[in-house]
Amino acid sequence: NMLHCEAKNLGSVSGPNRQRDLCTFCTISLDQEEVFRTKVFDKSVCPFYGEDFYFEIPRPFQCLSFYVYAKSVFQRDLPVGKVSIRKDDLCKYSGKEHWFGLQTVDPNSEVQGKVHLEMRLSEVITENGSTGQHISVRIIECKELPLISGQNCDPYATVSLVGPARSDQKKTKVKKKTSNPHFEETFFFEVTRSYSRRTQFNVEEEDIEKLEIKVDLWNNENLAQDVFLGETRVPVKILQSDHIHKAWYLLQPKGNGNKSKSDDLGSLRLKLTYIEDTVLPSACYTPLCTLLLKSPDVKPISASAAHILGDICRERYEVVLPMVRLLLHNNRFVPFVSAVAALELDNTQEANTIFRGNSLATRCIDDMMKIVGKNYLSVTLKPVIDEICESNKTCEIDPIKLKEGDNVEVNKENLQGYVQKVFSSITQSSSNCPPLMCDVFRSLRHLACKRFPGDPHVQYSAVSSFVFLRFFAVAVLSPHSFQLRSHHPDPEISRTLTLISKTIQTLGSWGSLSKKLLHVVHFIFLDEISSNVSKESSGLEDAVVLKEGEVQKRAQGRKPPGMKTFKKRWLRLTNRELSYHKHKGETSSLEWLEVLSQVSRCNEGRLATFHPSNYTSGAWQCCQSLSSNAPGCKPCTTTMLANLQLDIDCDREAERIFSLLSANDTKLQSMEDACASLAVYQGPQREPEEYSKFTIQEPKETFHTLKQLRNIMEELQRQHNIRNDVRQYGSL
C-alpha cells in the first residue's frame, strides 16, 4: 500500500485552538491499529502532508482509515475528522487521486472485529408445572478486537435479551491482554410463560417477533470508564424456523451507527495504491525461485534474472525488497550483491564517488541493512535518541534561525555533546554489528581495493558510505522510520536530529576525517566491522590492540616436584593475533573471553562445537573421546541473527516478484528486442534510445534468461487462471 495526502478547509475543533492556529497531523490506521503518522503541519487549515508511505498488510482487516488530528500541547490531541475506506472498496480508488469529505470521529463508532455466537430455543417445564420457552446464548469467542493504546485489550462481553418491556443483562469474565478472547460461557433467558397445566390460566405471552439478543464488547479499564468495542444484535425470531443457530457476526457501531449529519469538517485528498496478491502453492514458485537464486553464479551478473528484475523496475523503489528477502532466506545475498557491486565499480571512474548513487547495489544493501540491522540500530542508537528527544536541549547554531534569548555558544556545546554521544555509540558498537553486514562490508572493502589499488583510503570510504551515510545518519534523521521512536519528533527536536545527522555524515566521510584526531577511532571501527580475522592481513600497517594484560596459566596434568602450579603470562590481543610474553599487570579471564568472542564472530573458520574441558591422559575429560582431534561435544554460541529465515515467506515474496514482472511486461519485451538487435548487429550501437536504459553486456546470455523468465511467467499466469475459474464457478 502506497499513499500520500493533503487536506483543505479543515473545520474547527473544540478546545483552546483557534482555527487559524490549527496545527494538524494525519494518521493511518488498519482498522483501529495505527500504522503511520505524518509530521505536524503548523498553523494551516489547508496542510499539504505530502508523505509517501509504503507498508505490507500483515493480517485480515475491514477498513483502512485516515484521521486528521489537531495537535494540543496541554491535553490529548483532538480529532478533526476521518476518512474510512472498506477493504472491498480499496480497488475502486487504487492508483488515482480522490478528495474525500471528513466524517465525525465518534468513539462509539470506532469498532472492529467479530463475535462467534450459538443460540438455542427450547421448551421447559417449571417447578409449578407451567411450560415456557428459554433461550440459551453461548458466546464462544471473538476475533480481531482493536488494540487499546497500542496494547491488546482486556475484553469482556455483556449479553442481553431486549424487548418492549424488558432488558435482562448478563456479563462474561474479563479476559486479559488479548484481541482474540475465548469466552466459552453460556447464559439462559426465559422468553414466555404461557399457561399452568392445573389452572389452564394464561399468565403471560411475549411477542417473540419483538425480542432480540444484544451482545456488547467492552474493554475493562479498572479505574476509568470502560471502552466500548462494538455490538451485534440478533433477532430471536431467527430461532422459530431453526431452534439452533450458530454464526459469526461482525461487530457494529453503537446503535448501528445512526447519527445526525455532521458539519463540514473539510476534505482529505488521498492517492493510494492497493495491491492484493494471491499466493499459489509452493511448488508453483520453484522454477522462479530456482532461476533467481542461481543469479550470483551467472556470468556476467547483468544477464541474471535478479539483475534483470532490478533493471526493468529501477523506477520503483519497492521492487528490490522481495528479491533481497528471497536471497537472504537462501543465503545467496552476499555473492549476488558482491557481483552487482563489482559491476558498478567497473563503471565508477573516481574513487571519491564510490557507491554514492541510487544503484541496484546500493538499494539492495540499503534494504538488507534495514532487515538485518534492525536490532543493531536499536541497541546502538535508541538509548541516545531517547535521551535527545526527552531532554529537548536547544542546539540551533544558524544565526537566522535563533530565537530570542538563545545563546549560540550554549547551543553549540549542546550539539557537540549530542554528536559525541551518538558518534561514540556508533564507533563502540562493532561487536554488535550483525555478521551478515560484516560479510557485505568485507566484500565491498576487497572490491574497492581491487578497483582503485593506488588509493589506500578507498577501502574504508566504501564501507563508510554505507554504515555512516546510508545507515546510522539516516536513522538519526528519521528515528520513527526505523522503529527507534513511535512517531515523528516535534519540529525543534527534528531540527536537532537534522544537525546531528549532518554532522555524523561529515564525520563518517573518510576524506573529512583524514586530518582529524577522530581518524583513529573511525579507522578502528571500520576495520572491525569489515575485517576477516581468519585470513591474511588486508594490507594494514599496524594491528589494532583490542586488549592486553597479565593472566595466570595453570599447569595441566601431574605436577613435577618443585614446579609452581601457576605461571604468569602477559597476553596481547589484536584484530590479527593473540600473543603472550612476560610482563607485569592484571586482568580478568572473563574479559578476555568476552573480547575473544567478539573479535572471532566473523571468523569463517569458527568451529560449531567445542570441548568445555581439557585433554589429558589420552582423552578429553568432558566426553572421554580418545582422539585429540575429535569434534567438540558441545555447541558454540551462535552468532547468526535469530529468526531471520523464519520471518520471510518465500512464496509470498515470489508472488510479489511475479506481479512486478507482469506489470512490467512491456519493458521485458523491449529488453528482448534490444538483446536480439545487439546480437545480430555487432557494430556501433544504433538501437532506439530506450534500449540504452538496460544493462546488456552479453546479449545472447541475457536473451536466454529473458526467455526463461517469459516461460515461467506464462505458467504462473496459467495457474492463477485455473484457480480463478474454480473460484468463479465452484463457489456459492
UniProtKB/TrEMBL annotation:
InterPro entries xrefs: C2_dom, C2_domain_sf, PH-like_dom_sf, Ras_GTPase, RasGAP_CS, RasGAP_dom, Rho_GTPase_activation_prot, Znf_Btk_motif
Keywords: GTPase activation, Metal-binding, Repeat, Zinc, Zinc-finger
GO annotation terms (biological process): intracellular signal transduction
Domain C2: 1-100, 111-249
GO molecular function, one term: zinc ion binding
Residue ranges of every copy of the Ras-GAP domain listed in the record: 315-509
Annotated protein name in UniProt: RAS p21 protein activator 2
Organism lineage string: Eukaryota, Metazoa, Chordata, Craniata, Vertebrata
Protein's gene: RASA2
